[in-house]
């Protein structure tokens, strides 16, 4: 769906948890990267610290390794670097590459404001997607 958004002239964003990254690996490795389909992934990370459940810890420990192996550049979104990160991500994606942003500590409302101001979004399923659509007054 993100590829379709790109074909329409927009810069796509795929919002997912790191478990969604695991489910998306084949599409990313066999379509997005070889055909230089620039796309931004905003990834919430579960299993990254000791606060998460046991079943999330394996994927949490693999997330950065997977992104590095796929040669997807990554940055961490903080409350004070939203505009800098937006500029970096647009440059990477416009050049046909993938970028990922981790969103571990930013207040959700500021994260949705960042997305709303900077990108046309495609959101997948899950709590983050519902909150984004709610933030934008969409149903």
Description of the structure:
The structure is a single chain. By secondary structure, this protein is of the alpha/beta class. It has a single domain (2-135), classed as 3-Layer(aba) Sandwich (Rossmann fold). Helix content is 50%, strand content 16%. It has helices spanning 2-7, 18-32, 54-69, 82-94, 108-118, 127-135; strands at residues 13-17, 39-44, 73-76, 98-102, 122-123. It has a five-stranded parallel β-sheet, sandwiched between helices. Strand 3 (73-76), helix 4 and strand 4 form a beta-alpha-beta unit. Helix 2 (18-32) runs parallel beside helix 3. It is globular. The model has no long low-confidence stretch (mean pLDDT 77).
Summarize the entry for a quick read.
The protein has 139 residues and is of the alpha/beta class.
